[in-house]
């Protein structure tokens, strides 16, 4: 019995909600259709108000004679001062490592074979050779390049002598960057 009552309640709600929607949509009159302008005016109160964009301080003939203020009315520093601050902070930090590229020539699980291979690589090239252990392999890498193009130039020379050579991304020490 309760389920029948609930069913009737839902049906009646659906019917009445459809009638109120049709009444509100035809408020303008039976002959006139609602336009998009009418909908825009009705929805205006629900729209999010976005503040006007903050203009960047650009020198013009009027404000060139005036001295630039330390802060504008929004509390933000002018863009040129912010850039100067960021550049100053970057110059104070000593950056020693960054992402770059190396040419990997060899990878093996045996350390003895790697040390012999490093000796043969040093005979062929004058670029810095490094050996890293990345579990479970020892890897022999040559050079320290900022761009893949620089690494590719070395790769072309080494590929004929070391057919397993590949270019890999790696963190490089800027003191040992190989420049061509």
Please sum up the structure shown.
The chain is α+β, with helices and mostly antiparallel strands. It has helices spanning 2-25, 36-43, 79-92, 111-124, 148-159; strands at residues 97-108, 129-134, 137-145, 166-173.
How does this model look, in words?
By secondary structure, the chain is α+β, with helices and mostly antiparallel strands. It has a domain at 101-174: 2-Layer Sandwich (Alpha-Beta Plaits), CATH 3.30.70. It is built from five helices and four strands, in the order αααβαββαβ. It has helices at 2-25, 36-43, 79-92, 111-124, 148-159, and strands at residues 97-108, 129-134, 137-145, 166-173. The chain has a four-stranded antiparallel beta sheet with strand order 2-3-1-4, covered by helices on one side. A hairpin with a 2-residue loop joins strand 2 and strand 3. It is elongated and about 90 Å long. The protein starts with a helix and ends in a 7-residue tail after the last strand. 12% of the residues are buried.
Give me the secondary-structure topology.
Layout: H1 2-25, H2 36-43, H3 79-92, E1 97-108, H4 111-124, E2 129-134, E3 137-145, H5 148-159, E4 166-173
Antiparallel strand pairs: 1-3, 1-4, 2-3
């Amino acid at each position: 019995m309760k389920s029948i009552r609930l069913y009737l309640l839902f049906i009646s709600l659906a019917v009445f909600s459809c009638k109120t929607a049709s009444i509100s949509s035809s408020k303008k009159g039976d002959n006139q259709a609602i336009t998009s302008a009418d909908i825009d005016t009705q929805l205006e109160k629900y729209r999010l108000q976005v503040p006007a964009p903050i203009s960047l301080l650009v020198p013009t003939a009027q404000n060139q004679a005036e001295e630039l203020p330390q802060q504008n009315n929004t509390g933000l520093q002018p863009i040129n001062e912010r850039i100067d601050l960021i550049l100053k902070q970057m110059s104070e930090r000593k950056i020693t490592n960054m992402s770059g590229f190396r040419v990997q020539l060899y990878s093996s699980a045996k350390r003895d074979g790697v040390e012999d291979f490093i000796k043969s690589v040093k005979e062929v090239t004058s670029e810095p050779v490094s050996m890293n252990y990345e579990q479970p392999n020892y890897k022999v890498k040559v050079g320290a390049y900022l761009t893949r193009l620089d690494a590719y130039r070395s790769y072309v020379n080494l590929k004929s002598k070391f057919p397993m050579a590949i270019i890999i991304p790696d963190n490089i020490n800027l003191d040992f960057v190989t420049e061509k």
